[in-house]
């Protein structure tokens, strides 16, 4: 019962209230995370004072401690068209840019060198000095390389600093005080440059010269196909330990994301074996795997060139949103609405085809990555699919059993994909969307673990219940077994008794028959010589023997008749004293010539009236008295006693108590309970004492019909007393 209740609770459709509660909870968590993380993880210019006279950030003047992180987003100098070869050829001349066109006061933004900020001033242009940087060259993308310049003056106790730039659209070659120190950004096409990327975090060490100055040149070569080129996130200048911390955080986050994904995919695989609808697991697992691949590419955990990264991220993004859409649909695969609405039957195929088409388009013509149209198309695609998902879950499947998980997934999808489409600036290399992913996946795992434990508990409870039921049933069966065993034993005993009786009955019948025949033959053979006296004696014997036979037969008949119907009884008020007196006289006459002493003890002032069938009741006393006579020897003492008990009580509580006692052979104690069974004769009754074992059965039956009680007191070789207790009437 208890189990049934719990089961119903799980299968219960979630209410609108719980659904809303979950949606609000998820939305709040996501908003909070994005707000808090947006504040602590935003890369914006540190606002250090820039010395315009020598074009330098003086760390000593700015009080920058060894382990601080300073974000240098302003005051860069940018010179277009400077490639690595130019730089090498010009013998590492830092002032190379002064010979060509360059922009000063550049601020680094997410749009790369497409937009170097409003303060950028164009210098030293040989041709069109008045033009702004933007109109100067970039509209036509006539070049795809450039150099960023910056100078630092370090405090005396700081000999090196590190530079980290999370997003560079292109290969960045870093020169410090005229020497090449390493590469950041994307891998080049030949992949012959090693990039300093450690678990998604890229940084390089910059040594200062003997005057504690660092002259930094970053030459970036971008792919012409990329929409934004150059440095697209604010560089950080920091001490060694800040660098080490950032790498540790970046690696830990990678471990968390990958291990939670592995855990959910493998754990889900084990649990999914019990699923009725395994499809939702496949889409869930595939989405997780695709997400992790996207995460690895997008967060620079995998080193690749900018164009490959762009195309891979685009394809994975489209694949992910298609899989997410399929996952949501798979949750409601059994819903009735799917049969009614045509759109729900084919939407997954349409979405998959559109996704494949978009990816194929970009793979076939990589130059499309550059196109803003494609960017817009992919965003529209994602927003539309998310919108349909939300509509499906909120309106179409709102009454389904899986509506809660569907709603939570839809909310997660909205936040996840929105933040995947936004390039976020990062101090710590943790993307907000990956935090959303971790929250969602942890929630799903918790729900599954909770459900799993719940089911486990139910199984255990039902196992206990089952064990209890089995125990009860076994007990019941063993009781039945004992009953069967006893019945069988009784049957065998009855059968035994019946056989005995049959032989006794036949013997008892045969003896008088033989005697009758003997007398008849005798009379026939000597009919002429026989005296009248002899004839009378023989005839009397024949009559006595016939009566004996009659008695045996009538015993059997009477018993079975009494058993089969209760109508044989004719109840009336009758006096036990009178009945006993009459019977006593009869038996007394029989015993007159023997040594057996036969006495009767009756109250003089009480007739001992009971409701009874006088004939039947006489039969009871006759049987008991004849047994007393049969099972005693010659020097027997047989006594009949009757009295009223409880005379002081109300009449309905008064009883008439009759005892028939003798000092005969007694009955073995273990046989007393069997003595009333039909045909049962005690072992000590002996073959010489003839009987059928029916007398006491008749007694018991008559006593029961009179609603009276009978009991036996007996001791082997000392004698037996039968007690009969009947309800008295006035
Ligand atoms: P039976 O025809 O054998 O006397 P009953 O049904 O009258 O059959 O008695 C059943 C058995 O009970 C007897 O065979 C005998 O062993 C025992 N029994 C009955 N009355 C007495 C008694 N007064 N003393 C000893 N045994 C008795």
What does this structure look like?
The strands form five sheets. Strands 1, 2, 4, 5, 6, 7, 10, 11 and 14 form a nine-stranded mixed β-sheet that branches. With 730 residues, this protein is an alpha+beta fold. Helix 12 runs antiparallel to helix 13 and helix 14 (576-591) runs parallel beside helix 15. The chain is built from 16 helices and 23 strands. The relative contact order is 0.07. A hairpin with a 3-residue loop joins strand 22 and strand 23 (719-727). The protein is rod-shaped. Bound molecules: adenosine-5'-diphosphate (ADP). Adenosine-5'-diphosphate (ADP) binds next to helix 15 and helix 16. Residues 623, 627-628, 630-631, 662, 664-667, 675, 681-682, 685, 691-697, 720 line the site of adenosine-5'-diphosphate (ADP).
Structural class: alpha+beta
The gyration radius over C-alpha positions equals: 57 Å
Mean pLDDT: 85
Task: Report how far the terminal alpha carbons are from each other.
Answer: 58 Å
Distinct small molecules: adenosine-5'-diphosphate
What best-fitting shape do the alpha-carbon axes yield? rod-shaped
User: Residue ranges: pLDDT <50 for 5 or more in a row?
Assistant: 1-12, 128-136
In helices, the fraction of residues equals: 40-55%
Q: How many helical elements?
A: 16
Main beta sheet, described? 9 strands, mixed
Q: Number of DSSP strands?
A: 23
Question: In percent terms, what proportion of residues is strand?
Answer: 15-25%
């Amino acid at each position: 019962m208890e189990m049934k209740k719990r089961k119903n609770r799980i299968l219960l459709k979630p209410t609108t209230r719980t659904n809303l509660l979950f949606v609000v909870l998820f939305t709040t968590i996501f908003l909070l995370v994005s707000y808090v993380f947006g504040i602590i993880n935003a890369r914006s210019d540190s606002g250090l004072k820039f010395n315009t006279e020598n074009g330098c950030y003086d760390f000593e003047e700015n009080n920058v401690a060894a382990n601080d992180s300073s974000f240098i987003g302003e005051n860069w100098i940018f010179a277009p068209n400077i490639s690595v070869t130019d730089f090498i050829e010009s013998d590492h001349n830092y002032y190379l840019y002064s010979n060509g066109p360059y922009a000063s006061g550049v601020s680094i933004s997410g749009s790369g060198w497409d937009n170097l900020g409003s303060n950028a001033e164009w210098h030293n242009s040989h041709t069109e000095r008045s033009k702004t940087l933007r109109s100067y060259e970039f509209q036509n993308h006539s070049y795809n390389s450039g150099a960023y310049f910056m100078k630092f003056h370090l405090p005396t106790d700081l000999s090196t600093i590190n530079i980290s730039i999370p997003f560079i659209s292109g290969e960045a070659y870093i020169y410090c005080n005229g020497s090449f120190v390493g590469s950041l950004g994307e891998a080049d096409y030949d992949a012959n440059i090693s990039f300093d990327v450690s678990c998604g975090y890229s940084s390089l060490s910059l040594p200062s010269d003997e005057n504690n100055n660092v002259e930094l040149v970053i030459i970036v070569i971008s792919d012409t196909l990329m929409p934004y080129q150059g440095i697209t996130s604010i560089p950080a200048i920091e001490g060694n330990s800040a660098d080490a911390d950032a790498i540790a955080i970046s690696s830990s986050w990678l471990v968390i994301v990958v291990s939670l994904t592995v855990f959910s995919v493998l754990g889900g695989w084990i649990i999914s074996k019990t699923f009725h609808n395994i499809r939702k697991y496949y889409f869930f697992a595939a989405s997780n795997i695709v997400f992790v691949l996207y995460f690895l590419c997008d967060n620079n955990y995998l080193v690749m060139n900018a164009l490959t990264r762009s195309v891979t991220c685009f394809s994975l993004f489209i694949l992910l949103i298609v899989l997410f859409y399929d996952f949501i649909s798979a949750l409601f695969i059994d819903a009735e609405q799917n049969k009614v609405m045509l759109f729900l039957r084919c939407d997954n195929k349409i979405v998959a085809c559109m996704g494949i088409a978009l990816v194929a388009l970009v793979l076939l013509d990589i130059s499309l990555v550059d196109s803003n149209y494609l960017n817009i198309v992919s965003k529209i695609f994602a927003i539309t699919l998310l919108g349909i998902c939300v509509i499906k879950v909120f309106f179409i499947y709102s009454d389904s059993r899986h509506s809660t998980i569907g709603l939570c997934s839809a909310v997660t999808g909205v936040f996840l994909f929105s933040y995947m489409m936004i390039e976020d600036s990062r101090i710590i290399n943790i993307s907000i969307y990956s935090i959303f992913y971790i929250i969602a996946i942890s929630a799903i795992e918790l729900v599954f673990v909770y459900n799993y434990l719940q089911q486990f508990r139910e199984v255990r409870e039902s196992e206990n219940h089952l064990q209890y039921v089995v125990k009860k049933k076994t007990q019941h069966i063993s009781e039945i077994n004992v009953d069967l065993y006893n019945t069988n034993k009784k049957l065998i005993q009855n059968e035994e008794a019946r056989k005995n009786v049959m032989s006794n009955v036949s013997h008892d019948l045969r003896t008088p028959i033989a005697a009758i025949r003997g007398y008849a033959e005798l009379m026939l053979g000597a009919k002429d010589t026989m005296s009248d006296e002899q004839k009378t004696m023989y005839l009397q014997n024949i009559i006595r023997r016939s009566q004996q036979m009659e008695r045996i037969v009538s015993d059997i008949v009477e018993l079975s008749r009494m058993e089969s119907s209760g109508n044989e009884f004719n109840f009336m008020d009758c006096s036990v004293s009178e009945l006993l007196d009459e019977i006593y006289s009869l038996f007394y006459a029989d015993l007159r010539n023997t040594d057996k002493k036969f006495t009767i003890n009756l109250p003089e002032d009480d007739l001992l009236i009971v409701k009874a069938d006088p004939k039947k009741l006489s039969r009871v006393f006759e049987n008991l008295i004849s047994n007393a006579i049969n099972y005693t020897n010659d020097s027997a003492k047989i006594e009949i006693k009757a009295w009223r008990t409880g005379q002081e009580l109300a009449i309905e509580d008064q009883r008439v108590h009759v005892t028939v006692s003798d000092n005969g052979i007694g009955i073995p104690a273990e046989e007393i309970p069997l003595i009333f069974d039909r045909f049962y004769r005690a072992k000590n009754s002996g073959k010489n004492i003839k009987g059928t074992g029916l007398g006491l059965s008749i007694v018991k039956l008559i006593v029961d019909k009179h609603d009276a009680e009978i009991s036996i007191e007996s001791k082997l070789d000392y004698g037996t007393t039968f007690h009969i207790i009947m309800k008295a009437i006035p």
